[in-house]
Amino acid sequence: MSAAWSPPLWRVGLYAVAGAAAALVAAVGPLAQRVGSLDAAGRLLVGVLAAGLGTLALRDLLARPTLRVSPAGLDLVDGLRRRHLPWAAVLRVRAATLTHNRRAVHLRTLEVETIDGPILLTRRQLGTDPGSVAERVEEIRLRLG
């Protein structure tokens, strides 16, 4: 009994294509003038955007799957490193909402409480709603542990 979650490949491809297009606009002067009358500072900002999109695409491609559940425990990507957590180290898995009051930002996350502290995975990292993932992981954890 196992399950895995990660960002969809179409989104990884979209990040890569958008990053490549932004890099092209930033690198080619006449194209930058034609697209949006970008000066040097604007081209620099578009270049930073291209680097960010490329980094997201590369990370999401290399860190697949973000979360894998197996009889041995959880395998997940925490930042840039892959971790294995045996079921004995997992205290609870639940969906949570982080709220930033000043800007009314609500971020749905999957919170994996471990003996070392919490690990948060976002909806973007999982590719689906953290609520359904939490229910499935808890069901497997209770059945196996």
Note down, in words, how this protein is organized.
The protein has 145 residues and is an alpha+beta fold. It has two domains: 7-62; 67-144, no CATH class. It contains five helices and seven strands; from the N terminus they run E-H-H-H-E-E-E-E-E-E-H-H. It has helices spanning 9-27, 29-36, 40-62, 123-126, 130-144; strands spanning 3-5, 67-70, 73-78, 81-86, 90-100, 105-114, 117-122. The strands form two sheets. Strands 1-2-3-4 form a four-stranded antiparallel beta sheet, with helices on one face. Strands 5-6-7 form a three-stranded antiparallel beta sheet. Helix 1 (9-27) packs antiparallel against helix 3. It is elongated. 23% of the residues are buried. The mean pLDDT is 87.
Short description:
With 145 residues, the chain is α+β, with helices and mostly antiparallel strands. The chain has helices spanning 9-27, 29-36, 40-62, 123-126, 130-144; strands at 3-5, 67-70, 73-78, 81-86, 90-100, 105-114, 117-122.
- Distance between the amino and carboxyl termini: 13 Å
Estimated structural class: alpha+beta
| Number of spatially distinct domains | 2
* Helical residues, percent: 40-55%
Poorly predicted regions are: none
Strand order of the largest sheet: 1-2-3-4
Query: How many strands, what sense, and barrel or not for the largest sheet?
Result: 4 strands, antiparallel
Gyration radius (Cα, Å) is 19 Å
**SSE order, as H and E?**
EHHHEEEEEEHH
Strand content: 25-35%
- How would the global form be characterised? elongated
